[in-house]
Structure formats: structure tokens, C-alpha cells
Amino acid sequence: MAPRGRARGRRRPLRLRWAVSEGVLRGTGEGLLEPGRAVTRAEMAAILMRLVTVS
């Protein structure tokens, strides 16, 4: 999964990799992450549900 846009901060790329490897983030469907893009309410709900099952 390749990040698109800019992931600011030294730790953000590591956190994105962790979230992808754990299945919390799945990207845009085109194999991309867009860290600067706003998410919809439904997308955030799905992310939070996956995060709860990982923790």
C-alpha cells in the first residue's frame, strides 16, 4: 500500500504501516493510502470497529 500525499511527522509513516499491517486501514481500493484526505462518517465507523477488534 503506497501513501499518496504527505504524511507529516517522523512517526506517522510507522503508524500508517502498523495500521495497514493490522487491518485497521485498508486504503482507497486502488492500493493507496491518502493520509491528507477527509474520511466519511461511514469510513470512520469502519476504522473504529476494526481498531476495537485489534486492541
What's the quick description here?
The protein is mainly α and 55 residues long. It has one domain (2-54). 44% of the residues lie in helices and 7% in strands.
How would you sum up this structure, described in words?
- This protein is mainly alpha-helical and 55 residues long.
- It has one domain.
- Helices cover 44% and strands 7% of the residues.
- The chain has a two-stranded parallel sheet.
- Helix 1 links the parallel strand 1 (2-3) and strand 2 (32-33).
- It is globular.
How would a crystallographer describe the biggest sheet? 2 strands, parallel
Q: Beta fraction of the residues? A: 5-15%
Q: Between the first and last Cα atoms, what is the distance in angstroms?
A: 22 Å
Largest sheet, spatial ordering of strands:
1-2
Number of helices: 2
Low-confidence stretches: none
The total number of structural domains is: 1
Residue-averaged pLDDT: 83
Structural class estimated from helices and strands:
mainly alpha
The overall strand count is 2
- Please tell me how large the radius of gyration is: 11 Å
Keywords:
55 residues, mainly alpha, 2 helices, single chain
Q: Which helices and strands, and how do they pair?
A:
Blueprint (H helix, E strand, L loop, with lengths): L1 E2 L8 H10 L10 E2 L7 H14 L1
Parallel strand pairs: 1-2
